[in-house]
């Protein structure tokens, strides 16, 4: 009896064939490849007669799937962990099984769910709790604490938070200097960017209210968008959402603005869209038009009622539908504050409204629900020597 099983995983450039000839029949799949295709080539018995084959993947198939003499099955959204793939064949449906084989398929955990990542989260949590406890004792020992004392207490708290964060960034630099592959370099870069953004947010929080200043500098707008999407893609993947990105028309090579604030703005809006979207997709559309940088963040979530779209920009305002989720109702208020300080405008629209997205763009799933956050930022183009001011995107 002869049987030939071919296992393939879907990557960005097509299907990749996995080795199935290991004596242990153990197959490891990367966490970024959750789509598995099992291809069974023609199976015949010892006498050359065709066999009817059945396939079963533990945790995915409810029963044995009939694939006939030769066929294939595709499994999507494989969960992390161990899956047992079994194949059996018989000369007919009611004839005894004359061939059975099985393989162990292991889908690896993503890096943010490994043991060392949980240790990092634990370190941050313990550091923050310890700093809060020490700051609380410091304030309790001074019942007549005035404004100067409160400022000093906040400075101490900021120092306590900065110290472990600076240590983490230093360890990331050391880790980046060791031999790592391209994928690991991407992970390290995303972790470092997140740490640097958190460090700046801590510094701004320690300044007197309203004193945090914009720091305009040249930056590449497309690279900023791609970096934000890289950071948000794990959250979208965990919920099974599709994360889309598109730039319309000419793309300026460099703009002048506060890249960290724009990154914070996009992280807040995309994070909200992913948090409140249970199925479908979340997308980012960008466009440069008439000296203005336009950004649209759209989703296929439940949407925001028209009567509530202005109210959600106030501090500590939360809609009844979001009462059970984590948050304090500050994200949109912070976003509007920074957009206004940049001289721009942010508006919430219904995704089904005509003109909510440019050129009739919308969710590919065809869903009529969802919300569109439209942002307009007046940022000047920086013309570098030897570099065009903009380039046409395909």
UniProtKB/TrEMBL annotation:
It holds the Pfam family HATPase_c. It is an enzyme of class 2 (transferase). Residues 156-381 form the Histidine kinase domain. It catalyses: ATP + protein L-histidine = ADP + protein N-phospho-L-histidine. One of its GO terms (molecular function) is phosphorelay sensor kinase activity. Keywords: Kinase, Phosphoprotein, Transferase, Two-component regulatory system. Its EC number is 2.7.13.3. This is histidine kinase.
């Amino acid at each position: 009896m002869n049987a030939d099983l071919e296992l393939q995983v879907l990557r960005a450039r097509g299907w990749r064939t996995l080795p199935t000839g290991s004596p242990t029949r153990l197959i490891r799949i990367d966490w970024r490849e959750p789509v598995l295709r099992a291809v069974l080539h023609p199976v015949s018995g010892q006498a050359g007669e065709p066999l009817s084959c059945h396939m079963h993947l533990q945790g995915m198939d409810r029963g044995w799937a009939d694939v006939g003499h030769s066929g294939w099955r595709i499994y999507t959204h494989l969960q992390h962990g161990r899956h047992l793939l079994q194949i059996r064949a018989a000369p007919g449906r009611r004839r005894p099984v004359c061939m059975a084989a099985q393989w162990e398929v292991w889908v690896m955990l993503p890096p943010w769910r490994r043991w060392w990542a949980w240790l990092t989260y634990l370190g941050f949590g313990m550091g923050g709790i310890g700093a809060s406890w020490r700051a609380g004792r410091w304030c309790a020992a001074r019942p007549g604490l005035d404004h100067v004392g409160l400022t000093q207490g906040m400075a101490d708290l900021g120092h306590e938070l900065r110290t472990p964060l600076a240590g983490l960034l230093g360890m990331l630099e050391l880790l980046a200097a060791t031999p790592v592959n391209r994928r690991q370099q991407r992970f390290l870069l995303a972790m470092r960017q997140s740490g640097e953004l958190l460090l700046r947010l801590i510094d701004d929080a320690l300044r007197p209210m309203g004193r945090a200043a914009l720091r305009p500098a040249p930056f590449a707008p497309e690279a900023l968008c791609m970096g934000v999407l890289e950071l948000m893609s794990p959250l979208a993947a965990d919920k099974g959402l599709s994360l889309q990105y598109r730039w319309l028309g000419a793309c300026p090579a460099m703009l002048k603005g506060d890249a960290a604030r724009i990154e914070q703005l996009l992280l807040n809006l995309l994070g909200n869209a992913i948090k409140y979207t249970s199925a479908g997709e979340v997308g980012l559309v960008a466009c440069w038009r008439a000296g203005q940088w336009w950004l649209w963040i759209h989703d296929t979530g439940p949407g925001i009622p028209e009567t509530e779209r202005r109210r959600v920009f106030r501090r500590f305002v939360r809609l009844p539908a979001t009462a059970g989720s984590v948050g304090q109702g500050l994200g949109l208020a912070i976003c509007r504050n920074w957009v206004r300080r940049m001289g721009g405008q942010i508006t919430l629209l219904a995704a089904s409204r005509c003109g909510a997205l440019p050129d009739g763009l919308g969710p590919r799933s065809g869903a009529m629900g969802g919300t569109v956050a439209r942002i307009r930022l007046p940022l000047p183009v920086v013309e570098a020597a030897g570099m065009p001011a903009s380039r046409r995107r395909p």
